[in-house]
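so my prof wants the structure for this chain in the tokens format not the other one, which i didnt know existed until like an hour ago. anyway here's the sequence
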Amino acid sequence: MRCVHTKPEPKGCIRRQRHAKRRPLAPVRGLHGAASVLCATLLTLLVGIGATPAGAATCTSLAGLALPDTTITAAAPVAAGTYTAPDGEVFTNLPAFCRIAATLTPTSDSNINIEVWMPYSGWNGRYLGTGNGGIGGLIVYGFLARSLSLNYAVANTDMGTSPAATDPLGGRVLTGHPEKQIDWATRSTNLMTVRSKQIIKAFYGERPRYSYFLGCSTGGGQALHEALQFPGDYDGIIAGASTNNSTHNTAGYVWNYSAFNGLANISAAQATATTAAIVKQCAGKDRGLSSDNFLTDPRDCHWDPAALQCTGGGGRCDYVPDGAAGCGAAEVL
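here's what i got, hopefully its the right format
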């Protein structure tokens, strides 16, 4: 996939990106490039002697960085090579980097965790914000490691819902907490972006020249909110499989759960029979193809559930595809 920039890059920037040194990552990482052994060795030596931009801060000194509603919880230099993330994931062939973890508390009921990883050498001058999945509740270290190896300064947030990821009913963390709901929906991603850029500037002595966001599913929803509500945050955005209109989506989930798990639950056989009856009557009459096994526009389907009502035999019965009336022994549920 390719991100379309909202403002052109100077040729020099494009040229530096094209020839940026990339290091292979562990097998689970999909995007990686191979750097020559000589270049990788020289780069490691440069890191070893502490090459940093003029005016930059040291990694450990960022522990004292003062930012609004922000507590720096970790400011640690990480050596090149294999790194074990706080969640136990192991990443190999990483460049040396500065790991910053912080907790953001924009309200008294907020607890937004973020991490920012910044390569010591070879930074491409770009910041990459990355998305989460589901209800969030954790830092996605795979995104951080993958992007770091492409020389980005990269960040991720748990969306303010920790420890939802380890709770089978993780959504409860938002119940009765309207400020946390706002954190999850929009505020955590925006604040991650604002704080990350401030941390990057403190470390490198300059702000990112370009900023991008990448997310899928819930991360795609984060991307859409950034584009719609905070258009100045990023120069380019990739929104994959974007979860959108959470109010309607959630209402749909509640309806489905009630229908299939509630007191008057619908069995799988009944759901299949109902679908077959609706498609048989309405497919091809809603501006779709008659061979479709779905409806292009359900609003054009005027189906009467009485079509499935048994006319004899007693009991509930399956839908009879050929339209035959009555309930034989084979059809009774």
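also thought this was worth mentioning. Helices lie at 11-18, 37-48, 141-148, 178-204, 218-229, 246-261, 268-282.
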